[in-house]
Design goal:
Blueprint (H helix, E strand, L loop, with lengths): L3 E3 L1 E3 L9 H10 L5 E4 L11 H10 L4 E6 L5 H14 L3 E5 L15 H10 L9 E6 L6 H4 L3 E4 L5 H10 L6 E3 L2 E4 L14
Parallel strand pairs: 2-3, 3-4, 4-5, 5-6, 6-7, 7-8
Antiparallel strand pairs: 1-9, 8-9
Length: 197
């Protein structure tokens, strides 16, 4: 597969029961975005479910990627999220640890690793398998993260540092940087040509 780029836009889920603003964001960016990433209770505050907003994205004809954090979930709540996603047809997830909450405490029952394992073990008749991703910083990627379907690299404003990191890791999955994503699927290689990630 040749290297290709995707533009993945992050939309802000509402903190009130009104989807007008997020629908506007999706509508404005749909002509240029390949997909939309929806954070989960971002910056540690309650928002409309990322799975529900991913469903809105898909209802508007785009691809939604629901972010789910381990901070706010126990196993039962996570299984509910997967069931809801399957009912809505939301197939892609980015699993993250999550920022420190502004109210309440972390549940600490799940980790990103256990969420990946649980999602992989979950199936529903007639429903496609979930595609699961994880986030990484500019450092060595643990083997269990390299088993995800894709990685999102934490934002970096130093392109040289980002490119050095990308050349230092060997992944057989896409490693995507916020705003610009390079799909590198060649076994054991970094991106070639075009100076991508």
């Amino acid at each position: 597969m040749a290297d290709s780029f995707e533009l993945i836009c992050e939309v802000e889920p509402p903190t009130r029961p009104d989807l007008k603003k997020v629908r506007h964001q999706i509508g404005v960016m749909s002509p240029i975005a390949d997909a939309f990433l929806i954070p989960d209770n971002h910056i540690g505050r309650a928002t409309v479910s990322s799975v529900a907003v991913a469903n809105e994205v898909q209802a508007m004809g785009a691809r939604g990627i629901a972010c789910l954090n381990s901070r706010d979930r126990n196993l039962l709540g996570f299984r509910r999220d997967l069931l809801t996603a399957a009912a809505y047809g939301v197939e892609q997830f980015l699993f993250v640890h999550g920022d420190n909450p502004t109210e309440g405490a972390r549940t600490s029952q799940l980790t990103v690793r256990t969420m990946i394992d649980e999602a992989r073990a979950t199936s529903f008749p007639g429903i496609n398998a979930f595609q699961v991703g994880a986030a990484t910083r500019l450092r060595a990627v643990p083997a269990w993260k390299a088993e995800a379907d894709f990685l999102y690299v934490q934002v970096s404003y130093d392109l040289d540092e980002l490119l050095r990191w990308r050349e230092s890791v060997r992944l057989n999955i896409p490693a995507e940087h916020p705003g610009r994503a390079c799909r590198c699927r060649r076994a054991g290689s970094g991106c070639g040509g075009g100076g991508g990630l």
